[in-house]
Amino acid sequence: MEKLRVGVVGCGRISNTYRAALKQLEDEVDVVWAVDKVLARAQAFAASFPGCRAADTLEPMLADPPQAVHILTPHHLHKQQAIACLRAGAHVLTEKPVALHLSDAREMAQEARRCGRWLAVVSQNRYIPGIVHARKLIQEGRLGALRGAWSQLTWWRPPSYYECDWKGSWETEGGGVVIDQAIHSIDLVRWLMDSPVKAVQGHIARRILTNIEVEDEADAAIEFENGAVYAFFACNYYTHNSPIRLEIDGEKGSVLLEGETVTVSLKGEKPYRILPCDDVLEGESYWGNNHLAQIREFYQSIREDRQPPVPTEEAAATLETVLALYRSARLGARQTLPLRD
Ligand SMILES: NC(=O)c1ccc[n+]([C@@H]2O[C@H](COP(=O)([O-])OP(=O)(O)OC[C@H]3O[C@@H](n4cnc5c(N)ncnc54)[C@H](O)[C@@H]3O)[C@@H](O)[C@H]2O)c1
């Protein structure tokens, strides 16, 4: 198998997870470029891969583009950097959120089509084994009609987390705990529910982390077209990163995710658990550590010339729910979807 030449743009916190994943995929890929506006970070990343070059701007890489690029930069840069890489001929897997605005996500998708390249967005928790199983059960109708869902994220981000040039700002991060951390819960519930979001009523607050302009707490009632209502809560000021919890409830049973373990309770059957795989990457542990699975499928899809998960349109639907929550909080009113930009 010919190896894919890949590049990484943004060598900050999450790049440690990518370094570990790409090391495990060394039989499939050559990491040939590392880019970060702080050259020392690009050089440190490049040092892990023989022959990998480092740069502090995109230009040198775009002049000799890899076949695939991972974008791991601040949220407000995803659109412009993804489009630049697509135009140079690379397939792109960008970190979440796809972008800060729905019009940006649409432009990115259009540009991918125009350039004949694949564009996909990271949502690694869709690869948690219990979530894969839950989705299958739901699609087979084993939970019956879905009636509701809830999710709770009680995490800890110290004030120092926000002492950088983009986190904690509406313009560059695009929001706080909802768009950055709890977007994963919203994406999972949306994906499992498999029904469009109809309306969102939400509140946001900045209660404890007073050095930021965005929210450190949010709650919402999210209504789906299938009639189910999703109760959402998230905060970034708890004592530690408590395991994520979310549940989908149907007429014939429910699935409950705690951390990366899923408990399935079907009416009349003994409940059972699906444990996370033990293929855990080194480095900082995010919920969850399933990047390796998604990155592997990204490469596989490129080889098979098919759309890699998660397509831009899907990621944009999750972004739309996040933006509806923010708009509802700002206006103090229920927002129906589709949102107008
Ligand atoms: N999927 C997940 O679970 C997960 C977890 C953490 C972060 N992320 C995402 O990864 C992305 C990066 O987050 P992070 O926590 O690593 O942030 P970070 O601030 O630690 O790293 C961002 C890096 O981008 C670099 N950068 C900034 N502007 C640049 C530019 N113009 N060109 C090249 N490099 C530039 C910075 O110097 C920094 O090294 C975000 O989209 C974030 O939401 C995803």
UniProtKB/TrEMBL annotation:
Pfam families: GFO_IDH_MocA, GFO_IDH_MocA_C3. It comes from Candidatus Allofournierella pullicola. It comes from the Bacteria. Gene3D superfamilies: Dihydrodipicolinate Reductase, domain 2, NAD(P)-binding Rossmann-like Domain. Residues 4-121 form the Gfo/Idh/MocA-like oxidoreductase N-terminal domain. SUPFAM superfamilies: Glyceraldehyde-3-phosphate dehydrogenase-like, C-terminal domain (SSF55347), NAD(P)-binding Rossmann-fold domains (SSF51735). Coiled coil: none annotated. Residues 132-255 form the GFO/IDH/MocA-like oxidoreductase domain. This is Gfo/Idh/MocA family oxidoreductase. InterPro entries: Gfo/Idh/MocA-like_OxRdtase_N, Gfo/Idh/MocA_Oxidoreductase, GFO_IDH_MocA-like_dom, NAD(P)-bd_dom_sf. One of its GO terms (molecular function) is nucleotide binding.
